[in-house]
Amino acid sequence: MPASCAICGKTGSFGNTITTRGEPKRKGGFGLKVTGINRRRWQPNLHKQRVIVNGAKRRLRICARCIKSDTVQ
After folding, report:
1. Residue-averaged pLDDT of the chain
2. For a designed S-S bond to 45, which of 16, 60, 64, 68 qualifies (C-beta 3.0 to 4.6 A apart)?
3. Is the pTM of this model over 0.90?
4. Partners of residue 36 on adjacent β-strands
5. Which alpha helices (H) appear in the chain, and where do they start and end?
6. Could you state, in order of their start, the residue ranges of all structural domains in the chain?
């Protein structure tokens, strides 16, 4: 089962978390030093919802944005 919204097709995205040390220059320090970079993934906020599709009730994985915008019934 893919981690994607059944309505809008939203999937996860990739990025980095950057760990730093030191005091920023704007606060009077010598600047921030990067001590580590880790790959990570952001997942969509999916919920299982019962939806009427072609007259039949089906349980789909739908993102929170589609639920809030009343795209689904």
Report:
1. 93
2. 64
3. no
4. 19
5. 64-68
6. 13-68
